Amino acid sequence: MSKPRHTSKVYRLRGLPGHVDRLEAVGILSRSLQDVGRDDIHIRSLAAAVDPWERQPTRTATLTFEKTPALIAAHSELGEWKIPVTGLGSPLLIDTHFFGLTALNDVSPAEHRYDCIAISGLASHPFGSWQPHGEDKSFMWIRDVMPNYRPSTRFLVYGYDTAMVNSRSFQSIPDLSWSLISDLKANGWVSPTTKPLIFLAHSLGGVVLKQALVMLAGSGEREKFLLSRVKGAIFFGVPSTGMVTSHLLAVVKDQPNRTLLDDLSEGSPYLHKLEKQFGGISYDRKMRFFWGYETRKSRTVIRTPGGSYSMSGPEVVLVTKESATKGLCSLEPASTIQFDESHSNMVKLGEGDHRLSIMASKLSEIEGADGHRAGHLSDRLDLSLNGGTKIIDNSDVLTAGKEFRAQNGPVSESESILDPTMWDNQAVRKSLHAAERDLRLEQIVSAKGHTFGWVFDDPSGFSKWLQKGQGIFWISGKPGSGKSTLMKFIYNDPRTNELLYRWGYKSTQIIASFFFHHRGSALQKSFEGLLRSIISQIVEAQPTLANILSPMLEQKLRERAKTEIAGTLSSDLVLLLERQGLIIEEEIENEISSMVRSQNTRAEIHRIFWDYFRKLDDQTAPTRIEESLMRNRKAIVGSKGPYLNELLSDICKATIPLEDPCSFKDLALCWKVKIDLQSRIYHLLAQQGVDVHVSVEREVEDVIYRQDRREAFRATAYDHVWTRSALQTALFEIFDQTHLDLDITLFLDAVDEYDGRPEFISTFLKDLVQKRFPKTSVRICCSSRQWTAFIEEFSDYPGFKIHEHTEEDIRQYSLVTIDESLPAADLLYELVPEIVQRAEGVFLWVRLVLQDLTKAANTNSGVDHQLRTLLRRTLESLPNQLNDYYRAIIERIPAASRWDTYVVLESISQSSSTMNIWTLMEVIECSTASNLEEVQRRVEKISRAPQTHAENRLRLLSGGLVEVVDVGRDWGLQLMHQTIKEFVEDTQFKHIVLGSLAKITHENGHSFLSKYHLFSGNFGQDFFYHAREAERTTGRSQYPVFSGISESFVRESVSTAIPNAKRHEIRTLLGVAIVAGLRQYLRDAVSADKLVFRNTSDSLMRALFLSLEYGDTSDQDVIEVFRLVTVHGYVITHAELKMLLNAFWAPDLNQEEDRAFLPNQILVPIISIVLGQNWQALYGVDFLDGRYTVGTALHLSPPPEVAERFLTGGGDANALTEDCRTPLDCLVHACPIMSTIAEIVNGEEACALACVLAQHGGSLLKARQEHWDSFIGVLRARGVDISAIEKAGLPRWHNDLEASLSFQTAETGPKAPSTSNIPPGSKLSKRSKLLSFLSMGKKL
What we know:
The chain is built from 66 helices and 25 strands. The longest helix has 28 residues, at 694-721. A seven-stranded mixed beta sheet has the order 6-8-7-9-10-11-16, sandwiched between helices. A five-stranded antiparallel beta sheet has the order 2-3-1-5-4, covered by helices on one side. Strands 18-19-20-17-21 form a five-stranded parallel beta sheet, sandwiched between helices.
């Protein structure tokens, strides 16, 4: 039987009903074409269409015909044909061009993990270029093999026009990239549920992809989200430095597409710039790439004498190995793939090709780069670390103490008894209120004349909803149609309150608002800002609701106290007394309760001074007294005798000068006695007959110290507690309350300006009104554009489209806006009807038109009929769509000023804060400056110019798209409307403003602002943010400019911008770059100077610590930066290593100058990196300011992961200190002592470390049984399951003392002096005391 013949064309069929299978699809197509039988149609793939917005899902097929249908044969030149189908509303579409996105396989939703898109190369077919040569087109490896290798991946091909010969297209590579971005956005890859993206890109397709990624990085939030979904790619012959194009240039000659070929040519400046940007962006986002290169020559195209073109020209390597791999063949060979094929054949893999499995494995590696991290050491060691701290949810100290001791025996765990909840409701309300909460509402232009009055008429339905409606009322409209002005009008109009008020209704009415502002601060456009604003307004309207938040604040404080290992005062006191042998009976319990309650010092003022305050004539005096006492609390408690009397007299004179001071002083002394915790503890001990010796005094001091820390936590808890999750919890706690009947109405403007996913905010609002609360009803009036996410969620609720109701408002607005004093005012009035007609409800368009017409009227004179003609022509020339209008405004600006225009619009768009006009002028001057001296000269020059000069310059450069707004204490600049910000953030904006200059321009607003802050010496959060974002969005560092700044300038500037920068040894821009997390700057620095990290005078480790606090860098970024600097020569000092180990194990014992801020998830990898370089470096770690030496890092009780690495690398689990202690001895001795002193030991880590040491043969030598029992007691008290220790065979003792003494002194470093050499009377820190006890083998 002969093999079936297939035509050499593959077709794409679109529009098949979503339910059909291959057999049904063949039937539908055969019946519709009529002249092709079922056996003539071979469907090779059938998959759901890519478009996620289809109302009726359809499927797409790829197929071949054994016989070409007549419909196609008759019009073969078309490339696309429509096939009417009976019963279907739309015809089927069949084509050969494959333009756009085509899915090649289906993946079930449960298994779908990735999308992989193939992009073809220059002068190639989107589908056919991936197929082997020959007539048989039944096989295509991406479609037919890859889904079997990667069943959780959906594969697609992307088609675009890359024809060379006879092409009339003048699209550039950025144009092609923009089309790719548009297709991806249109097909759902900006949805939060979209899958991560991987690409297969050949030749030009790879260049288009690189340019697309660069454009995405510098665009708006949605584009950046799309960029975050890209995980990597396999590049096939993609030129990074250019390719041979001379033969193609001879063919295209002066065709419009010649520019595209020029950009691909060898030595192309465009490719050089693109590669730098792409390299930075992909590095910053940790994308994974593989680089395929050809090793066979390709035939070139020539023109035959007959005028046709033939692939019979000389053979050349089109893309060299160096160009295709960026030179990685020798540096990173694992990232390269050799194809022994020509340029076009390298992607034409056939059936059974051994390279198919290689492609699958590379895809797997890219997916794996996005996978899960390796398991934790505790998983590998099979340790049982599931114990947890037991917490009794009872704020009553007496009950908690009784219940705990009844269940657990004597108290020895500080977190088991909770203190009563004590919060200042006034401070709670104040902490929720953000300064910029109402700023946007104030900035919105008020309605002019009698506009918007119609909203309260019946046709709108709004009044009825206010009176009796439920759920959501949705006001939608076009951009610029006046939605925000209407929402401000509604919120401020007294009729709104009148309609909401219900006579005789028992519920408390509360109205709150939030006006989203995408051009404003983070709080003005975020979910956190929305929640914070709503909660603060509700609590201000009903202050008693603040009581609902107190338990949540208390819980957050407990969580933080647990993290900081602060415990509670109640359990500290119980533990202190039990250690003195006291039994906690009712009398002592009552006194403990009283002491704990007295630490709510503000409440004690209210209780003690209550009657006194009532008798004062001055109603403001109680507040003054309260604040003065609280401000001087510590001084009052710590003072005695005459000094105390003088202090109280001064407070009395300052707060109530006309009152008798004696009564005030008596009450103040009562307050002092009540809140003086230390005196009360000593008094209680004396009452119980306890001998207060030195060790007891030390324990009392520790109790006071820990209470001071808890109060410090509480003082700052207001600032730290309001995270996104905490705010969401707080809102639902208020709505879920059962004490008050509340009727809450929320007015939310510009929901589409929320800086997250529209699907999230729309669903949240819908859920909010649908949820049934016990005594709270919630209604929401919101406004937004008519985006799909809002239509899907809000379309069933009442509302209206504003642009369908504002014709009369726009007429009124136009008439009021025209200045009647103008000579041409009457001529402008004549144009109002046409303006109203063309506006289509968009107020912003009217505003821009009136600006242009007024300018034309003012700059032209003449008789009325001439001016009338001029104004009408001006109006007719103005575009109807806002984006077209903005483009026209930009094109009017002189070419010589376009760079400054780009700087102005980019900088205002990207600024993290509102800038004034003089700051903007300085930013413009900094944008092209190359050094500090040049900037200073320019700034000095513009500072002498009058204000009007700056204002005129701004008008010229911005084309009127920037407005001056009141931002409280100053006048600031912002883009006139959100649509202008979107225009500026569009990927084509740079090309619109700069034209051909855009191809060699990588700077953006972040670049300009970071340079401004640098040259101004502002090394603060704004500089860190913009410098980091400049790298992330442009892919380039600013090393060439930054590196020219002098060390003295940096040192002086940093000392004021970063607290303690001098103490933390940050002197140069290298240290600043680490604080800011500028990884690309660091890479460029080491490229310029291989020894830069080895020779730096900065403490890069301390800079790393500061980066988390000031640089807002992620944990992974900190680890990557540390790996970068150590790989390139930075050697960590013993002092820095000591700081690392202290930060992990004993943060509470760190001396202030050595305090570290790195969390454990960063510390462990960093210490592991040190071990990976030289694990023996951890021997002989100098400790205690050089006076003592502990044998090895193991004796410092390192993290268990680090100990495992250390021991695996050759460390000795039984290495000894000078006084013959094993690491296990040190752990067993240290844990109870540290627990006694400062509650700093993490029980689970101690358990895991003991198991690690045991598994490597570690044993006890000097520790005795009682030491071991104390160690186990501490772990049990902390709720740790110690069964893992028992399974590890502990305790066990070393049997061969002589063998154990054979440790290598060379590795343990210089001998430590004995503690007897410490001079008498020397003051040792708590840390010094601890380690001196350890070295002497004594217990505290």
